[in-house]
Amino acid sequence: QVQPVESGGGLVQAGGSLRLSCAASGFAYVGYRMSWYRQAQEKERELVATIQSTGTSTNYADTVKGRFTISRDNTKNTVYLQMNSLKPEDTAVYYCNAKGWGNDYWGQGTQVTVSS
Q: Of the candidates 26, 10, 7, which has an alpha carbon nearest to the alpha carbon of residue 96?
C-alpha cells in the first residue's frame, strides 16, 4: 500500500516534547513536498508545517512557530516533526502528507494528547 506511515504520538504533559516520524510505504520521498497537518476534535484540519522537496525551505503555522521543527531525511524516506513546549491546544490527530509527481498521499494519523 502506498502511503506515509506516522508514528511517535502519545500522551505528554504541557511543556513537554514529542517527535513524530513519517515513513514512506511503497514510494520514495524524493521530489515530494512533505507536510504535517493536524485535526482537533470538532475542528477542521489545519496545516502545521511544510518542507520542500530539497529540504531547504520550511513554513510553519503561526501557532507553532518557534516550538515545532520539521525536517526530512530522504535517504531514510522519513520526515520528522519535533514538537517542543507543547500546549493543551496542540492536542489533535497529526497527519503526514506527501505531495508531488501528480500524487497526493495521506497517512492514517497519530494521536497527540497534551495534558494540562
A: 7
